[in-house]
Amino acid sequence: MKTSRRLPRWVFVTIAALSNLAWGAPPLDITDQHISDTTNTADWLAYGRNHNEQRFSPLTDINASNVNRLGVAWHLDLPQDVGLVSTPLVIDGVLYFTGTMNVVRAVDARTGNVLWTHDPDVAGAIAGRKQAGWVHNRGLSAYGNKLFAATWDGRLQALDLKTGKLIWSVRTFEVDDPRYITGAPKAFKGKVLIGNGGTETGPSRGYVTAYDTEAGKLAWRFWIVPGNPADGFENDAMKMAAKTWTGDWWRHGGGGNAWHAFTYDAELDTLYIGTGNGSPWNQKVRSPKGGDNLFLCSIVALDPDTGEYRWHYQTTPGETWDYNSNMDIVLADLDIEGKTVKALLHAPKNGFFYVIDRANGKPLSAEKYADVNWASHVDLKSGRPNERAGARYEDGSENIYPSPVGAHSWHAMSFNPLTKLVYLPTIHISSDFADQKYGADWQSVPFDGGTAVDWTMGKDPRPYQGELQAWDPIAGKTVWSVQQKMPWASGTLTTAGDLVLQGDSEGLFNVYNARTGAVLWTWNAGLGISAPPITYKLDGTQYVALLVGFGGGYQANLFPGSEKLGWSYRAQTRRLVTFALDAKGTVPAQHPPMFPAPIFEAGFEINSEQAKIGETLYLQKSCYLCHGGNVVAGGMAPDLRASPVPLSEMEPVFEAVVRKGERVSRAMPAFPDLTDEQLEALRHYIRMKAHNGQ
Ligand code: HEC
Q1: How far, in Å, from the CA of 637 to the mean position of ligand 1?
Q2: Is the CB of 495 under 6 A from ligand 1?
Q3: CA torsion 170→223→206→365, rounded to 10°?
């Protein structure tokens, strides 16, 4: 009788192990240790590279002496994209990034070949919904074997890192809520955190929520401002915060929305969130008898496991200028007076650069890094700013530095532990504030929102509006700086090769000497750059990757500026470009800057009454958020003065686009409530602006 010959079990085990090796690395399992490891140069595992958010790479292959040999290694054209503001991640040889309408792409980090694409169908989710916010997205987070991405309409999604397959998706707010998400989630300790924006798009009460990374189950939520006391407080922190509010603030939401900075401190096991401004901005309306209005404009330290409050530091008590503290939070060890301090670095909109002891939230330094006239200084003992009389526009119109754009916005700063300098993208714009039109009974309405204060761009004496500053956080002063004519340059990257890398809104990608600010190399992208560069090393080659695609709030052109750049909605190609030493690649030439030529419609008689109604609708329905203030576009959407669609002969198309939502998939929302008369009024307003321009 024949006996079957069976192989011993160890043979199968060995074959399985070998095939695993042959067919690819074992499943990815990203941990907090990996994200904290600053020596790993093959990957870029988190938004700010590591949990410390420093955006510092120890790589020296590309350095101050050879950077002039940089060339294009590969590029990927993204013809469907508009604004690109995201920081890519690099994990195990794959580069991940988010594009317009929250499309996530995974590409081979050595070649740019697209491996997979995940389209969360934002258009489908917002169909029929009113619109708020922007289509831009700043990035991703990774943990375990998953990638986390948030969508404009409020979903948080977990994708399989290898395949892009959707593993789970949760709603972080209801689809009819005027909030929106533009930020990157933050993953740590098996949880993933997300907040939202929306203080201007209706009454909004900010919060952040942590979900477990495995199944997307809600772990905890932290409300940033107190709700109506009659409903009871969620926790002691809210009870404490409520003592700093007056009037019936809950009617307005209060605000505080955390739409950007979340930093996990693995050393002190603490989570820091940067909180937003008031909803509405004007404190006289929001909290009529004053008060600090906690936790607006603060760094709030939370227990990462439970979301419980630990400490806070408020940068702008009782804010009334949109001076949120949503800007990035960088962790660094600093030698201060002979002691090593675990510090937190933060440059919020209000123009002061803060160094905070992160063990207890005490400010160690708070110096002006830009023109500031709302406060003379910060008293370090009390931690409070010394405000100047009149700064709250209580005596009528007032010119205030900085403007609501901020002296620094979401564009990331970087910290180099070798030079001990922070590389900070700075904005110099002032604003005239006036609130005579807004009484105590003013009320914002979801989606038609508002700020309860009028603000227009002030006349600025400086011949430049942008500046890259190398800031010494210990001395509290600028060491070198580069003036930039236009504001809104990208975030920065710094390396041990003594380099600082930054793109600007005029389309130049510059590499600077980190110690002196000398320009060492420049590449002209032919399109404004708003996304920060990253770097990684694979197979012995150091790459620098950069998304090119002007974007963010300045592109919306809420006030004049970005239309001067010529970055048109349709003309230039958005792309991902990588560079390496001695690389000889090329990219197709860009369309030259294009400036819209308003169309004059012969025979169109502008009715000034109707044009006035049209103007109100243009503001109320938030057309200006994309098509620009005064109908002058900055590239986020077509310039309507130069568009044929609002012409009389195209009326049915105008109706199909504006009322029926024919272009929702291209981020042009539907406005189903508009009547025929209102559509006509909008056309009169657009024609008036187009004809004035002739
Ligand atoms: C969230 C941003 C956003 C808002 C708000 C918005 N639009 Fe648009 N709009 C767009 C984009 C993007 C396009 C281009 C779509 C495409 O690629 O065809 C567009 C296209 C259009 C067009 C067609 C222009 C052309 O030449 O193709 C018209 C007309 C228009 N919008 C009118 C309006 C009006 C009127 C409002 C306010 C009631 C408004 N839009 C609000 C983003 C927006």
Answers
A1: 6
A2: no
A3: -120
Q: Is the CB of 666 under 6 A from ligand 1?
A: yes
Q: How far is CA 686 from CA 133, 631, 636, 662, in A?
A: 22, 7, 17, 20
Reference 595, options 557, 633, 550, 548; nearest CA is: 633
Cβ pair 514, 470 in contact under 8 A: yes
Q: Are 83 and 549 in contact (CB under 8 A)?
A: yes
- The number of the ligand 1 atom at minimal distance from the alpha carbon of 642 is 26
∠ Cα 579 581 583 (to 5°): 65
Burial class (CB in 10 A: 0-12, 13-18, 19+), 443: exposed
Ligand 1 centroid distance, CA of 524 (Å): 29
Is the separation of the CB atoms in 410 and 260 below 8 Å?
Answer: yes
Q: For ligand 1, is residue 129 a contact (CB within 6 Å)?
A: no
Structure-token match 């510090």, residue found: 343
User: Cβ distance 271 to 358 under 8 Å?
Assistant: no
Residue having the nearest C-alpha atom to atom 40 of ligand 1: 623
| Contacting residues for 116 by C-beta, under 8 A, at least 6 apart | 105, 106, 163, 164
671 lines ligand 1 (CB under 6 A): yes
Residue of 627, 662, 685 to test ligand 1 pocket, by largest number of atoms within 8 Å of CB? 627
- For residue 135, give the ligand 1 atom closest to its CA: 1
Mean pLDDT by 10 residues, the chain (694 residues): 45 42 58 97 98 98 98 97 96 97 97 98 80 80 98 96 98 93 98 96 95 98 98 98 97 97 98 98 96 98 98 98 98 96 98 98 98 97 97 95 96 98 97 93 86 89 93 98 97 98 98 98 98 98 97 83 93 97 97 95 95 94 89 94 97 96 87 95 97 74
**Looking at ligand 1, which residue's alpha carbon is closest to its atom 23?**
645
Q: What is the Å distance from ligand 1's center to 638 Cα?
A: 7
Asked whether 272 lines ligand 1 (CB < 6 A), one says no
Separation of CA 371 and ligand 1 centre (Å): 36
Alpha-carbon Rg for the chain, nearest whole angstrom, is: 25
Amino acid at 674: L
Tell me the two tokens of residue 393: 């526009």
646-676 burial, b at 16+ Cβ within 10 Å, e below that, comes to bbeeeeeebeebbbebebbeebbbbbeebee
